[in-house]
């Protein structure tokens, strides 16, 4: 029994040696709170109502980022209201935003997905500067809330080949102009 007590006494004497040394460390903590980028007020492009007759040669109809239609020598006439598409980018003031978009879109006939009108040369306007989607990614500086106008050209068929009706990228067989917006 004495052995047990002696061993216990030795253990008590060793313990204070380990607990007498103490170190302390302060770990700082930081956080940056920022607003996430958001896309708002998305509106599609509307080329309006375009009328033709059988002798119309067809060709490119251009819409600028302000929604103005230029019919060129297509033989088509315009009635109704045309509007450029667009969206707002909400991000931190001064943040870098990278925008890229697809180079084509397809407007399909409401009743026949195989009858299409191609949209070519999509472009967008950011802070007053027009950029072509074909030019690849563009880096912009955010002003907090930036409105982006979207437009392009559609290639209309000749009057003898045209099929009247409603065309949209939302119809079966259609494909929209796709935008990718990155926030750096």
Short description:
The chain has 184 residues and is mainly β. Helices cover 10% and strands 41% of the residues.
Which range does the strand content fall in? 35-45%
What is the tally of helical segments? 1
Architecture (CATH level 2) name = Sandwich
Give the end-to-end Cα distance, rounded to a whole number of Å: 74 Å
User: Could you describe the largest sheet, including whether it forms a barrel?
Assistant: 9 strands, antiparallel
Q: In CATH terms, what is the fold-level topology?
A: Immunoglobulin-like
Please trace the helix and strand order, writing H or E for each element.
Answer: HEEEEEEEEEEEEEE
Supply the number of structural domains.
1
Number of strands: 14
**In CATH, what is the class?**
Mainly Beta
What does this molecule look like?
The protein has 184 residues and is mainly beta. It has one domain (38-183): Immunoglobulin-like. Helices cover 10% and strands 41% of the residues. It has 1 helix and 14 strands; from the N terminus they run αββββββββββββββ. The protein has one helix spanning 2-19; strands at 38-43, 49-51, 59-63, 69-70, 77-79, 85-90, 96-101, 104-109, 116-126, 129-132, 138-141, 145-156, 167-168, 179-183. Strands 1, 3, 4, 6, 8, 9, 10, 12 and 13 form a 9-stranded antiparallel beta sheet that branches. The chain has a 3-stranded antiparallel beta sheet with strand order 11-7-14, with no helix packed on it. 21% of the residues are buried.
């Amino acid at each position: 029994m004495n052995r047990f007590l002696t061993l216990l006494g030795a253990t008590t004497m060793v313990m204070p040696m380990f607990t007498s040394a103490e170190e302390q460390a302060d770990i700082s903590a930081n956080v940056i709170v920022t607003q996430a980028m958001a896309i708002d007020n998305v509106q599609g492009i509307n080329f309006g109502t375009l009328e033709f007759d059988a002798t119309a040669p067809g060709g490119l109809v251009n819409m600028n980022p302000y929604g103005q239609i230029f019919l060129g020598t297509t033989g088509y006439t315009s009635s109704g209201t045309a509007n450029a598409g667009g969206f707002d980018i909400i991000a931190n003031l001064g943040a870098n935003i990278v925008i890229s978009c697809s180079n084509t879109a397809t407007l399909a006939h409401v009743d026949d997905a195989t009858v299409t009108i191609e949209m070519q040369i999509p472009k967008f306007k950011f802070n007053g500067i027009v950029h072509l989607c074909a030019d690849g990614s563009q880096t912009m500086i955010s002003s907090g809330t930036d409105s982006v106008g979207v437009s392009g050209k559609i290639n209309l068929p000749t009057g003898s080949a045209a099929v009247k009706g409603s065309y949209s990228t939302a119809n079966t067989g259609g494909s929209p102009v796709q935008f990718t917006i990155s926030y750096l």
